[in-house]
Amino acid sequence: MNENQTDSRAAGTELLDAVRRAARQEQFLEVVSAAEARTRFNRHLDLSPLEPEPVALASALGRVLARDVPAPSDAPPFDRANVDGFAVHAADTSGATDAAPRRLRLNGEVLVCGRAPILAVAPGRATAIATGGVIPRGADAVVMIEHTDLVEAADGPAIDIRRAVAPGQFIAYAGSDIARGETLLRRGARVGSREIGMLAACGLAAIEVVRRPRVAVLSTGDELVEPGQPLRPGAVYDSNGAILGAAIAETGGEPVRFGAFPDDEAALEAAVRRALEDCDMVVLSGGTSKGAGDLSHRIVARLGRPGILVHGVALKPGKPLCLAVVEGKPIVVLPGFPTSAIFTFHAFVAPVIRAFAGLPAEAERTVEATIPVRIASELGRQEFVLVALIEGDDGPIAFPTGKGSGAVTAFSQADGFVQVDALATVVDAGTPAKVTLLGDARAPDLVIVGSHCVALDVVLGALAEQGFAARSIPVGSLGGVAAARRGECDLAPVHLLDPATGSYNSHLSAPGLTLLPGWRRMQGVVFRPDDARFAGRPAAEAVAAALADADCLMVNRNAGAGTRVLIDRLLAGARPAGYGNQPRSHNAVAAAVAQGRADWGVAIEPVARLYGLGFAPLSPEHYDFLLLESRRARPAVQAFLAALRDPDIRDRIRAAGMQPAG
To answer: How far apart are CA 351 and CA 34, in angstroms?
Structure first.
């Protein structure tokens, strides 16, 4: 056996070993409940606020006071006038009326802000004073200028006072706002703009605040590419690094980005050890699910005591979570999928950051809502189901968003989540549930449930410019029809072919539901331009050639999609290879063909152009809207209807590759 054969056999053995490891998948150390995981983690942490640090007042916004702040001076620092007028002896104004005014001679000075008085106010005298001016010696009240008349007396200018004042009237005394020595702000107070104003009023240029915890952020995986760089096959952008960095800052920490690391054990371990030295906490994403390329948990296991405390939590999403403590510093390895990562971050990382930063636990905001559809759940794992809130006729409705833990947009587009108990296998439609709100959730002005289209984004963008907030939930045409019939939306975009008549959507009208014409979009067979089986052929011939070739792999569409009805009609009962591959969008179909995972599928022409694919037209598809007549008068619905008629918006729909109806 020569040297090349030996090397080849060794490489083959390594590859087989890797395959075996991937297939075997080491088991989690021990899957525990979320409560048990939190208890184990917190038991080994000192959750006291970090040490104080001085910061300039200009940099104190959002920080937490490390100590009580006593007022070093009075505010105001002197007795001052609250109105424009004249500083007087109150006794000199007694009995003053419009019919019998009291006359006082004016002193020869005007007290404006920032000027110290020179002359005392003797009985029978007054001094002109502006709001904020220092009350002169001898005065005990201020008369508003509106209650006086200027007169020229023989012995000089004077005023006639037509309204009596009481001692202390219109005077703010020294220390009446803030008294020297009193506690101005308490330890643990979060500094906002009002607090900064109070501190500045006392002359404080700097304060001591709790140091923000420095939190290292590392992403792991051979598949990761930094945003801005071109994607290679099989790679994805490192969105977790950006998401987690922003979440750390929102929670009160200081993110320290270490970047994305490939599955190089030595390099990653060196980076984690640097992070432990430089930071108060280390957060990694990826490398927790015990796959062949996952190594974060192995590195963490040998960093120090007590080491890994939890590896596997009975949560969905979030089961692969790994919690560890090394010499008092927390290390958390979050799952790699974005939704899993952000859920487990808020459940386990955010409370630690807030405690280190001196912030109180975040108050949970909830609302009661109805689940409109059946939700299947996995027995033995507490599940968090992301939902979009819409206002129904009988109260809030929590519509599951339907995106998995790998979806980057799932968390950002949800209003909240519903917790499904670990012992439940299903949540029935119509079940009332408590929705935990995320961020600043608010009910949208317009709810659209059904099929999605890029031209719909054009219309909704125009509504956003008018100040209307729209919620679009893509569940397919049949899902939209069901939502409209249940009264859960204002509009349902549909493109369903009636097999009996061959027409689009007209069979969907029902009492209370009106069909509104939207636009037409050309459906066709998509394929790679260099595929000779399809190039230059009409759609029917191209499909016939595909069905005759056992190696030709199709990509289908999901049941309930209007395109699926067209495909099944086109195939006339045939079930070619790839029929079971059923993604939920035109883009997913085009991506599968462009990347060589399939050879053909059916999609709309604009998407085919977007992915550089060949296109054989089949038939124009009618993308229309079911309108709930009971919602027609709503301002947002009226704005939507007007947008469909707007010439500029219709031109933009054409530019997107669609043909407006009418």
So the answer is: 14
Q: pTM above 0.70?
A: yes
CB 400 within 8 A of CB 375: yes
CA distance 255 to 247: 9
- The answer to whether 68 touches 183, Cβ cutoff 8 Å, is yes
Q: pLDDT category, 23, cuts 50, 70, 90? A: very low
C-alpha span between 23 and 242 (Å, rounded): 32
Radius of gyration of the chain (CA): 36
Torsion sign (Cα): 543, 547, 549, 551: positive
Do residues 419 and 384 make contact, with C-beta atoms less than 8 angstroms apart? Answer: yes
The H or E element spanning position 269 is helix 265-278
d(CA 286, CA 270): 17
- 498 Cβ contact partners less than 8 Å away, ≥ 6 residues apart: 504, 505, 506, 507
Contacts of 514 (CB under 8 A, 6+ apart): 626, 627, 629, 632
Q: Which residue has the tokens 């009160």?
A: 252
Q: 47 is written with which tokens?
A: 């959750």
Using the CB atoms, write b or e for 395-412: b if 16+ within 10 Å.
Answer: ebbbbbbbbebebbebbe
DSSP 364-431: P-EEEEE--S-EE--TTSEEEEEEEEEEETTEEEEEE----TT-SHHHHT-SEEEEE-TT-SEE-TT-
Check: CB of residue 81 under 8 Å from CB of residue 135: yes
Phi, psi torsion values for 588, nearest 5 degrees: -65, -40
**Cβ within 8 Å of residue 486, ≥6 positions away:** 372
Would you report the helix, strand and coil content of the chain in percent, each value rounded to 5? 30, 30, 40
- Triad 436, 441, 446: Cα angle to 5°: 125
Q: Within 10 A of 439 (CB to CB), how many other CB atoms are there? A: 12
Partners of 127 in the β-ladder: 87
Residue with tokens 């009291």: 102
The percent of residues in the chain predicted with pLDDT above 70, rounded, is 93
Per-residue pLDDT at 13 exceeds 80: no
CB atoms within 10 A of CB 330: 25
Q: In angstroms, what CA-CA distances link 479 with 125, 207, 451, 585?
A: 84, 57, 8, 14
For residue 303, give every residue at least 6 positions away whose Cβ sits within 8 Å of its Cβ, in sequence order, or none.
Answer: 272, 273, 276, 324, 326, 331
The arithmetic mean of pLDDT across residues 576-602, rounded, is 93
Residue 431 CB contacts under 8 Å (≥ 6 apart), including other chains: 370, 371
Contact 192, 63 (CB under 8 A): no
8-state DSSP, 495: -
**Contact indicator for 71, 202 with CB cutoff of 8 Å:** yes
- Please name the residue that has the structure tokens 């790998």: 406
Write down the mean pLDDT value for the chain.
Answer: 88
